[in-house]
Design brief:
Elements lengths: L5 E5 L11 H15 L3 E7 L2 H5 L5 E11 L2 E11 L5 E6 L1 H4 L6 E2 L2 E2 L3 H19 L5 E5 L5 H7 L6 H4 L2 E6 L7 E3 L3 H4 L12 E2 L2 E3 H8 L2 E4 L2 H6 L10 H6 L4 E3 L28 H12 L11 E8 L5 H12 L4 E8 L1 H13 L4 E5 L3 H10 L2 E4 L9 H7 L3 E5 L2 H6 L13 E3 L4 H15 L2 H13 L5 H19 L1
Parallel strand pairs: 1-2, 1-8, 2-5, 8-9, 9-13, 13-14, 15-16, 15-18, 16-17, 18-19, 19-20
Antiparallel strand pairs: 3-4, 4-5, 6-7, 10-12, 11-12
Helix pairs in contact: 1-19, 5-8, 11-14, 12-13, 12-17
The structure holds adenosine-5'-diphosphate.
Adenosine-5'-diphosphate binds next to helix 1, strand 15, strand 16 and helix 14.
């Protein structure tokens, strides 16, 4: 590594403070790993009610930070907390914007003032760093919520000494969420009107905060090599494929890692007993615990328990799940589903749970401890995603000896190798066409193989041996940070 590198890491969710999905896991684990590799990294996120309720030890470091928003200037406080690993985390407090039951909205829809909320956060983060004298070389932003930051640096703040030479990296965790807002809100977000055109942050007559990130960042990354290719095609590009192709020289696919501090059956704080490669038999006790906890039939001890832990969204393949669920039950298995999201899937799945008590357990909601107990107690994990930028749960599942059954897309395709019973190689099951028959077909294969306990054990062991820890990927980010910093210093 060259000169010391400082990075301002800004995300709309960061584990363990606030989480709705994989972004939080990444924003919790990657900075910690960067710090261990010698990077001066600080993390920033909004001070949501969820963070408040977490009762983290915080201290106020700045009162009344002035943040312009449209015609007004809002004042907000900044709090600091430190992670167990000693990483400084800054929380941007503004009760009217962030003290709400959810992060982005309710099952009925997004909060109508999300543009105001995330413009505020984005601008406050830059202004705070300037005011606090935190000089940073690179700002690393994630998804549409922080897409305005690269735009601010290259427009509003391009002549501001402290900020003008800061380089930006923008990571796409999911291209499907674009941060679209009516054009008349342009003044609110503060980007000059001259930037609102099809070659700028306009997207079919609307403001797209995602597009702002894609256009103005020095480098774009996405969370798996395969997804970095897929998003450059109309099929996966959500209308942004043209821009992504134009920016392909600055687009990188860096696979997410798994945070084994949080996700390791040998140390997991939410499961008993612990187990690992050396004493794999304890996994059966975790399974028995899960059967009891969820009131499943006791004879499932010898039959496979198939789980899904997921946001309930079309992206995650919920249609396929709903389609095959009764056929899967006929294979004499147990099904455990933990998820929250779209109302239609929640309702359908709850109905299945009520129709087949003892065989299907459906838990609606976001429940971190239960997610861990399911990961430990289940035999297989389903990920039939339509598209999947990286996917973290399949990596966690491998470590827990829970065999992933995935669709061959994005990061799922990069991380799962179909098991070959002849050679004993591979770590899961994979299907390609987004079709129920194909999905059911691999589930059937998996259930058949489960009955051969010796071969199944081999498959579990293959997965448990795999190492998807963050270090290798974090080193790739460091190289990229150095590259964009150099580019700005020219
Ligand atoms: P995405 O970010 O698209 O939701 P990822 O696989 O990248 O998908 O990350 C999902 C993360 O959210 C994992 O840590 C998973 O365990 C967690 N998760 C998803 N749904 C739930 C839920 N209902 N309860 C608890 N954890 C969940």
């Amino acid at each position: 590594m060259g000169d010391s590198l400082s990075v301002w890491f800004l995300a709309s969710e960061v584990a363990p403070f606030a989480k709705t999905g994989g972004l939080a896991d990444v924003a919790g684990a990657l900075p910690a790993c960067l710090k261990n590799l010698g990077v001066d990294v600080r993390v920033g996120l909004p001070f949501y009610r969820m963070v408040k309720d977490g009762k983290f030890q915080t201290q106020k470091v700045l009162e009344g930070l002035e943040v312009p928003l449209g015609n007004t200037t809002l004042k907000g406080d900044v709090l600091e907390t430190t992670t167990e690993g000693g990483l400084p985390v800054y929380l941007f407090d503004r009760e009217d914007l962030f003290d709400r039951p959810a992060l982005y909205g309710t099952p009925e829809g997004d909060y109508p003032d999300n543009l105001e909320r995330f413009s505020y956060f984005s601008r406050a983060a830059l202004l705070f760093a300037k005011k606090a004298g935190f000089r940073f070389d690179v700002v690393h932003c994630h998804d549409w919520q922080t897409g305005l930051i690269p735009a601010y640096l290259r427009t509003l703040y391009k002549a501001v000494p402290f900020l003008s030479d800061v380089a930006s990296v923008f990571t796409i965790h999911n291209l499907g969420y674009q941060g679209l807002f009516p054009a008349d809100k342009l003044a609110t977000c503060g980007v000059p009107a001259s930037e609102f055109h099809p070659g700028g942050l306009e997207f079919w007559g609307k403001i797209s905060l995602l597009k702002a990130g894609l256009l103005y960042a020095d480098a774009i990354t996405t969370v798996s090599p395969k997804y970095s290719q897929e998003i450059q095609t109309p099929e996966f590009g959500f209308g942004m494929d043209d821009i992504l192709r134009k920016r392909s020289a600055n687009l990188y696919g860096i696979l997410n890692g798994a945070d084994y501090c949080a996700w390791d059956p040998a140390t997991d704080r939410y499961i008993t007993p612990h187990y690992s490669l050396g004493d794999i038999k304890n996994k059966a006790r975790c399974k028995a615990g899960l059967v009891n906890e969820l009131d499943l039939d006791q004879d499932l001890a010898d039959r496979p328990i198939i789980a899904m832990i997921s946001r309930l969204a079309a992206q995650k393949g919920c249609d396929l799940l709903v389609d095959v669920i009764e056929d899967v039950l006929r294979l004499d298995v147990g099904l455990v589903i933990l998820g929250a999201g779209e109302e239609r899937y929640q309702t359908l799945l709850v109905e299945f749970g009520e129709k087949y008590p003892g065989s299907i357990a459906v838990k609606i909601g976001f429940d971190e401890p239960l997610a861990h107990r399911i990961m430990a107690g289940a035999d297989m994990l389903l990920l039939p995603s339509r598209y999947e930028p990286c996917g973290l749960t399949q990596m966690y599942a491998l470590k827990y000896g829970t065999v992933p059954v995935v669709r061959a897309t994005g990061g799922l395709d990069d991380t799962i190798v179909p098991f070959n019973p002849e050679t004993g190689e591979g770590n899961g099951f994979k299907f390609s066409p987004y079709e129920s028959v194909a999905f059911l077909g691999v589930i059937r294969q998996a259930v058949d193989l489960f009955l051969n306990s010796q071969v199944w054990k081999r498959l579990m062991v293959n997965g448990m041996k795999a190492d998807f820890s963050w270090e290798e990927s974090a080193r790739k980010y460091i190289l990229l940070y150095e590259k964009v910093r150099k580019g700005r210093q020219k």
